[in-house]
Design a protein that fits this description.
heterotetramer, A: alpha/beta, 4-stranded parallel β-sheet, 17% strand, globular, disordered C terminus, B: TIM Barrel, 11 helices, tryptophan biosynthesis (chains B, D), RibuloseP-bd_barrel (chains B, D)
């Protein structure tokens, strides 16, 4: 259950039996495909979720960078983000396990909406815990969850954001473990969650690796993905982790042999407004856990964290709500320590600029999370080789209001003039 | 390894308060009131920012304590400042224990024990705790499987490590815990998180039965709020009762209502006395005490 | 260029040469695949758009109706609706024709956003005309167009809605025909638009027909689609039109022969609040053009219209902005007259109820347009045979605010309690 | 087929106004003022709710007219009420022409000609128009390809059908139009929609050249707003000038400013006179008039 020194099961004793039961179910259904679980999962991912998602050649960006840029279009998945891969897998697993109720936490609301959709699809009652601050600022996602029939339970403790919601969901689970499954939204939490969520998300890189070989004749030189908790990141990396040869291999393989070589894996974190923390206030104006955090225990796992010198968890910050988390998946922490994954970060400004660039140049409006990956591409494409796959983890419809507000605070040449919205009538977005 | 002694003569009353709730000075008075009221062991909470095992009552206490400036170092001062003659147990989350020795920026804080120590794991924290007189730990997010390093440090410095047994804990997990536990075992009376409730769960007897061959005292917690509850629990075979939320409620109400420190302390002492007496009555009702 | 008596080219002389040029290009590139146009179109639809979209078995609805219900998931297309099929086709065609500028009209904003996305993808300057009333009430779509780099030109004439925007775009085109292509958003307008848009949308039924055969071994008994202008409708029907045998053929074909028989085609219009028109005010409180309109000439084509006795076009109304149009594609008008397509309508209430049902039962939040098709299914599933394909023309994220507002005016048992949104903080959707 | 006579002696001035803009009575006065000012033919707009070929100026006029209650039947009354001795052309969109005979609910309106007629196409409208004295039609959304039924009805009742030739009209399309046009041909001076502009487009000469072998008068419109413009256009070979937006602007401004009917009528008459005189001057400048 560990990734080097990371991972483990740091949870209240009351949850341990549930986690052990889940680990057992994970082993049987996911790893062994018992009762055809994985077959059904993949079939539902296709028919309900819309898989496979395309690997699209990005013409304008490729020309701009003189590098072949491919977009792995998870934004086209049902719900608008990679989140459904995991939510559908876990809700289906809960059904196989005989559970009768689904709970989940959500921050920006993406995981909550994905879970609510999956639960509706599989006819499971579903309750989502969401901090009241997040409820107020992510109303469309609250609407979506409610419209899919899920209960949304406001969490009023503390700042009322993601980490409080996670704690609250764990508390619910501690009371209801016998009939309830807790759908954790990323590759975090106690074992088996980090491995299991990775396995559900690995379909991203399974497809991308095959598609890249099909389209380019070889492996990409680099895969770039944004990293918050890290589920899209590990999903995009998983099948490339073992492509760890000494040399890059974008050299094509016309012979049809299985391509080999090294694929660089770049995890782009939210640099926020600064990498400097305010110890006094316990605030990190970023979410660059892999780049700047240090080891600790949070939400059931040992991993890298943003914490103060006492070990109290810091408030993280990012223009992107979905990256705004003080922890990170233990597997990513391990792969970074091993040197297999390169952690980098991109600040709010560069992410916003990249958001506009992708929208205007490629006609794909990315999630602000995703935009961080493109911010890195803009600044560092020279180091990424000849063929780069960027994971478009989600679409940006949810971020429109934030983007407009944040853009208006900055002087970004690339940003479109939004004054039409002031010239014409009122009404909320 | 001395916490067992608190259970030796009669059933133990083990209250919990979050250190520094609602502030340092009042909290000292409140903890001392519990000792006055008959506490045999006191569980002192060192607040962590992500208390995943607590119900709302204790969560709120933790927020109040953090906001009043509680830190690990301040916690150790708190313990030193306490004027009580009762064994003290530190209840906190593992990250605080784990990080204490790992910080390079502790130099400016009051104590120096952890200075520039790095990658030492729980040892510096345990060392410091022992130094100020803490006799044991309860760490709600540290199951037996992950407890090796802490157990080792506790052994080195002669501290107890209390584990929580849940109603759902069975088989191998019980074995693993039994190997590591010392001082007493915290028997969780029902599923869920901490919080005072109005009834005593039937699961308690079943839990006690599963632990009958353990050679540490069995203290039952979760949901005990009156002397009668305590009585029933002990009558059912517990060696002690752990009470948190009912006491924290008194602190919270006093804080909200702006009551004097003395008034709140009196109430705490009074409830403590009731609980201790209930526990004692319960022991008398047992046909055949089975404590080791 | 006609469908029976419908269709034609009723446009200002200045546009005729452009339309003839377009008709020529349509014939060569679309019909003849000159220069591999259709190949490139299909490839881009796949890689950029996310085609094929799944044909999903709807478990809960199938159980509810004791009928096999399949969902054609156009909501999963890039942009969230079938609109991209057409927009991408036309923008690509404009590029093949050497045009340098794209213009389009939009009502609710779906076609505008699809066109803006396609234009960004193909690196074409793009201007969208949109009524100022619509701009005020469809702000998220205005944001999206601007973010994709399109200009949005407010139309201030009249009510400031779709029909004014169409007229205004035609005016622009009349001035700029030489370098500009006008991307009409539905199977309306002068020839060749109705045929061409149908051909671009026909991919829906091409896929659906194949997928239905693959999944069920035969043809569906019915295909149900909502109808406003009618592009998703004809897209969903096109390949089934010739399945016009005397008998339904859901009887499976285990022999592997090409399935034959009759597939019923049901076009579900917006019944609005009532089918009764107010001649005095020139208002039809519905958009049931096929069911209640009569022949006339609008926006370049002869078709069925909602008009008063003088021939002035009426204000149409529907809870669904995308169906709110007083005209309809001439081909649909013709197929209705021929008896090949059955026009029906579903009122606002039933559409809202169906919106909630699909969201809760299947985890698919449909566009309000789409919800009309499901409203019909609820009430008339007995008549639709054993296997029904419903076209999920778009997703409902854009409609959340409308749905909540309209739901709150009604007493719908099925609607979720939205009071959490009042209990917790402020902030627009 | 008599509109050609208006071009016979000297270049014709063909003004346009929307009937009923801004209201019925004022509009009568304004149209009469144009006749006073020297109009040779008047194009009277019957407003349609979707005027796809008009620029903003005339669109706004159409909205004003519709809001003041203009309908096809009211339009015919308007024509009857007009006290002018100038040929009148009805400029409208095809749906109004097409629907006139197709309504079953016309019975309650002023005229009865279309009663219960159904599927008769344009005939009832043309019949009624002829009855009130209209001499021809301009239908901006009816290209020659779709004009068969209307051409037929016009022939039956002796009316002209004017087509618009755009700068982009070429080859076959010109042929088709030439076969059907009568009265005069409306030469669109530039691409775009109606609207007054400050320059005269070079395309005009090219258009006139393409039509040199047509045997109907060539009236040039789109963008003419001053006597000098008219002069240039006619000097370039046009048989007449069509002016709409510049006149509608006067109506709109008068309406906005609340000017008296007389004041607005005077301004219209004055501009009409200027335009007519400009056209006449232009004809004198032509080296060799080429009109048929």
């Amino acid at each position: 259950p560990k990734f080097g020194e990371y991972g483990g099961q740091y949870v209240p004793e009351a949850l341990m039996p549930a986690i052990e039961e889940l680990a057992d179910a994970y082993g049987r259904y996911v790893l062994e495909n018992e009762d055809g679980f994985m077959d059904e999962f993949r079939e539902r991912l296709a028919d309900f979720g819309g898989r496979p998602t395309p690997l699209q050649y990005a013409e304008q960006l490729s020309a701009r960078y003189d590098t072949d840029v491919y977009l792995k279009r998870e934004d086209l998945l049902h719900g608008g983000a990679h989140k459904l891969n995991n939510a559908l897998g876990q809700v289906l697993l809960a059904k196989y396990m005989g559970k009768e109720r689904i709970i989940a936490e959500t921050g920006a609301g993406q995981h909550g909406t994905a879970t609510a959709m999956a639960a509706a699809h599989l006819d499971m009652p579903c309750e989502i815990y969401m901090g009241e601050t997040d409820i107020a600022r992510q109303r469309p996602n609250v609407f979506r969850m409610r419209i899919n029939g899920a209960e949304v339970n406001p969490v009023t403790v503390g700042r009322g954001t993601l980490k409080e919601a996670i704690s609250e969901t764990m508390r619910d689970w501690a009371t209801t473990v016998e009939n309830t499954h807790y759908v954790i939204g990323s590759i975090v939490g106690p074992h088996p969650f980090p491995k299991m969520v990775r396995d559900f998300q690995a379909v991203i890189s399974e497809e991308a690796r095959e598609q890249a070989i099909e389209k380019t004749g070889g492996l990409p030189d680099s895969v770039v993905a944004c990293a918050g908790g890290g589920s899209n990141t590990m999903g995009a990396f998983a099948e490339f982790v073992s492509d760890d040869g000494a040399e890059r291999s974008s050299a094509k393989n016309p012979s049809g042999d299985e391509p080999r070589g090294r694929v660089d894996l770049v995890a782009v974190e939210a640099g926020g407004s600064s990498l400097t923390v305010d110890e006094e206030k316990g605030v990190a104006p970023n979410s660059a856990t892999l780049s700047t955090g240090d080891e600790g225990v949070l939400h059931g796992a040992r991993t890298k964290l943003l914490q103060d010198s006492d070990g109290q968890i810091m408030e993280s910050h990012s223009v992107s709500a979905g990256l705004d988390y003080a922890g990170v998946g233990p597997e990513l922490a391990h792969l970074v320590d091993e040197g297999r994954v390169t952690p980098v970060n991109v600040d709010d400004d560069a992410a916003l600029e990249a958001f506009h660039r992708l929208s205007q140049d490629e006609g794909v409006i990315p999630a602000l999370e995703t935009a961080h990956a493109f911010g890195y591409l803009e600044e560092n494409h020279d180091e990424l080789g000849d063929t780069v796959v960027v994971n478009v983890s989600g679409r940006g419809d949810k971020d429109l209001e934030t983007v407009i507000e944040e853009t208006s605070k900055r002087d970004l040449d690339i940003a479109p003039d939004m004054s039409i919205l002031n010239r014409v009538g009122g009404g909320g977005i | 390894m001395g916490l067992e002694r608190a259970f030796a003569d009669e059933p133990a009353f083990v209250p919990y308060l979050a250190a520094g709730d609602p502030n340092y000075e009042d909290s000292l008075a409140y903890v001392e009131a519990l000792a006055e009221g008959g506490a045999d062991v006191i569980e002192l909470g060192l607040p962590f920012s992500e208390p995943i095992a607590e119900g709302k009552t204790i969560q709120d206490a933790i927020v109040r304590s953090l906001e009043s400036g509680m830190t690990p170092d301040r916690f150790f001062e708190f313990v030193e400042d306490l004027d009580v003659d009762v064994p003290l147990v530190c209840m906190t989350y593992y990250n605080l224990i784990y990080q204490y020795g790992d910080s390079e920026s502790r130099s400016d804080s009051g104590t120096a024990s952890g200075d520039t120590a790095s990658q030492e794991g729980p040892r510096p924290f345990v060392e410091k705790a022992a130094e100020v007189g803490i006799e044991g730990f309860v760490v709600p997010d540290l199951p037996a499987e992950e407890a090796g390093p802490l157990r080792e440090a506790c052994d080195e410095f002669g501290l107890d490590l209390v584990f929580i047994v849940a109603p759902t804990t069975r088989g191998d997990r019980l074995e693993r815990m039994m190997e590591q536990v010392s001082g007493y075992v915290y028997v969780q009376a029902r599923l869920g998180v901490t919080g005072a409730r109005d009834d005593v769960d039937d699961a308690t007897e079943a839990s006690l039965a599963r632990l009958s061959d353990w050679d540490v005292p069995k203290a039952v917690g979760f949901g005990i709020k009156t002397g009668e509850h305590a009585e029933e629990i002990v009558a059912a075979g517990a060696d002690g009762v752990i009470v948190g939320s009912a006491l924290v409620d008194i602190v919270a109400e006093g804080h909200e209502d702006g009551d004097s420190t003395e008034a709140v302390a009196d109430r705490l002492e009074s409830l403590a006395r009731e609980l201790k007496q209930g526990a004692v009555r319960g022991a008398q009702e047992r046909p055949q005490p089975e404590r080791t």
